[in-house]
Amino acid sequence: MIKVVTLQHIYGKNRERMAGLLKTLVENELKDLEVNVEISITPENWAEFTLEGEDEEVSANLLTARYGTPAKKAEPEKVYIGFLQAFLEDAFLVNIGVPVRVETEELKALGSGKPKQLASRFGLIPHLPVEIEVIEANKNLKARFTKKQLDIWWNWKKAATDRVTVNGATRSEIKSAIKKTGHGRDIYEIERLGLLEHAIVCRENTDGPGIVAAIGPRLKSEMGAIIGDAN
After folding, report:
1. Strand 163-167 and strand 197-202: pairing?
2. Which of 16, 71, 92, 173 is most buried (most C-beta within 10 Å)?
3. Contacts with 16 (C-beta within 8 Å, 6 or more apart), sequence order
4. Per-position b or e across 79-98, b if 16+ CB within 10 A of its CB
5. What is the CATH number of the domain that holds 214?
6. For position 67, what pLDDT does the model report?
7. Same domain for 163 and 211?
């Protein structure tokens, strides 16, 4: 038996529902391996998977490689995977296992504006996975987003089409909401960002905020919209 704590937060009003969704997703990912999967929630609200079976070690390595594990401390000049936790007046707060601040000075790479304005412009919402580099490790941990992360967001912004970010929902739930609201033809694809975090790629001439307004009531999710500059 092996236990793996993943860098996947259990969030939202219905924690048991989310835990069940995560268990199903991971079971599907490991379906070709001989392993039994159980899920629990740590006191810090991380998803912990208990793996038991012939392929438990391989399964543990796959989950760790794909989703990461919470860091117990941050080291300067080291790159970490985390998730957006909050947008403060003077910083983005990123959780890598411990909270890390990406302050206003380091957000200039996203253009002008306060952190909340920048988040809105790029469709950023809590729980989206991100990659950061720690630049200072004292009582107030400070970091910057990696070039790879900034390039992803700028590619969204410079695209010819809008995007809609969604958290706390499976791909099938998003597809169902799109279908039921009659927007199937307006969507190009659904990009998977995390286990339950996605970006809906709109087709040309489809309004991202309009998609949010249409499918939002059908999803128990936070949503953001990125207006493609080339649109």
Report:
1. antiparallel
2. 92
3. none
4. ebbbbbbebeeebbbbbbbe
5. 3.30.70.100
6. 82
7. yes
Task: Kindly state the tokens that stand for 179.
Answer: 């279908």
Task: Supply angle C-alpha 144, 153, 71, rounded to 5.
Answer: 40
Last residue of a domain, one of 126, 148, 170: 148
Percent of the chain with pLDDT over 90: 79
Q: Are 84 and 124 in contact (CB under 8 A)?
A: yes
**In degrees rounded to 5, what are phi and psi of residue 77?**
70, 10
Q: In what order do the strands lie in the sheet with 46-52?
A: 2-9, 46-52, 36-41
- Cα(183)–Cα(212) distance, integer angstroms: 11
* CA torsion through residues 208, 210, 213, 214, sign: negative
pLDDT tens column, 187-220: 999 999 988 899 999 999 999 999 999 999 999 8
Closest by Cα among 118, 131, 148 to 224: 118
> Based on the structure, what is the number of domains in the chain?
3
List the domain range (segments joined by +) for residue 57: 2-67
For helices 208-215 and 171-180, the axis angle rounded to 10 degrees is 90
> Residue 231 falls within a domain, yes or no?
no
User: Which of 129, 148, 167 is the C-terminal boundary of a domain?
Assistant: 148
Tens of pLDDT, residues 31-53? 999 999 999 999 999 999 999 99
Q: In this structure, are residues 157 and 109 in contact, taking their beta carbons and an 8 Å threshold?
A: no
CA distance 169 to 142: 30
pLDDT per residue as tens digits for the range 164-184:
999 998 899 999 999 999 999
Question: What pLDDT score does 231 carry?
Answer: 61
